[in-house]
Amino acid sequence: MANARTPRSAWIDAAQRALANGGPDAVKVETLAAGLGVSKGGFYWHFKNRQALIDEMLDTWEESGTDEVISRVEAEPGDPRDKIRLLFRMAPSASQFFRTELAIRDWSRRDKGIARRLQKVDGRRTEFLRTLFGEFCADTDEVEARTMLAYSLMVGSYFVNGQSPGRSRAGAVELGVDWLLR
Question: Which pTM was predicted?
Answer without folding.
Answer: 0.90
